[in-house]
Amino acid sequence: MPLSQCYNISDVRKAAAVALPKPIFDYLDGGADDELTLSRNSAAFSDYEFLPSVLRVTQDVPLERRVMGRALTWPLLLSPTGLTRMFHDDAELAVARAAERQGIAYCLSALGTTTMEEVSKATGAPKLFQIYIFKDRGLTAEFVARAKAAKYDGLILTVDTPVAGNRERDRVSGLSLPPRLTLRSMLSFALHPRWAWRALNGRRFSFANVEHRVDELSKGPTSLFRYIEAQFDPFLSWRDVEWLAAEWGGPLAVKGLMRPEDSVQAVKCGATAVMISNHGGRQLDGAPAPVSQIAANAEALDGRAEIICDGGIRRGSDIVKALALGATACSIGRPYLYGLAAAGEKGVDHVLSLLRAEFTRTLMLAGVDGLGSLSAGRVIRLRNQIA
After folding, report:
1. What average pLDDT does this structure show over 286-291?
2. pTM over 0.90
3. 192 assigned to active site
4. DSSP code of 288?
5. DSSP alpha helices (H): ranges in 150-258?
6. Which residues constitute the domain of residue 67?
7. I need a labelling partner for 188 at 20 to 30 A (CA). Which of 33, 136, 246, 266 fits?
8. Inside any domain, residue 336
């Protein structure tokens, strides 16, 4: 499916499904257990309707917003996603370059396949680095020092992975890191020669930022489940957030929060932003959709920290709803990866252009003359969805 015939994110997803072997697409597309949270993340946006104003459209609606210490041309971030080279050999560099053209922020994952130094050299756009607290605290401290040296603008600490979620699609496919042929997957890989050629002849698959200290993949294929359980510290506390905030000394978001009291505690520990997120439905199945938790967290925080809605965005109109409910910005993961898988850097460009056009159009149709006038009064929740 050519990009010219991809009119929305759903179309780009279909193109990605065609471009990728099924085990790889399932890793990108899947969630935990019964995938109830995965499906609700997007569906929950339909619980809210716009209450439009009329005769208020101005010629140029200002879209800029300051997030994590940097001015963005519109309030969108590209979420950290690990193992990006599985979807296209240009990997994180393609995503970072597309983000720069849009004037938005890109967050590199600690489990990315390109080093943080390479990404920093490739783009002058706002750059964030996502960090975990490893069992080896020295590695976490090293990441902070490297982020400072490479002039990253902010850190995002992910806190919802004490263990890996039960991603059954990956168990069924037997997906390993790096990907390898199995009897179950052989036909799917054979039917995707372009992907296979890039995978075999491109850069070596590795966790580029940690391999100098934890090169588990050189010992042979492993699973993401085993890697997480071996490397991440499952017994974190708020003292770890305090330590990281003091060590970093700059904009810090805590990602994976749902409860307002947790968001308040994160700010007390030094966070400047909270990311309302359930890890894209890949961890705790049955967790609420992020959009449904924005208002309660915004009320509890009362302007003391930025709120980023992470998860379920599939339309530019979803971003408008999230901002009206109290989010400072939104972030996306799967949509830009669908574009990357379908057409590399051009695919990411296409996804971001689609979302921005929908975002701008929705603001105009809803009669919003600036992001400052977006408030809860712009959306109403369907009565049959109120608990």
Report:
1. 98
2. yes
3. no
4. P
5. 168-173, 186-190, 193-201, 224-231, 238-248
6. 3-380
7. 33
8. yes
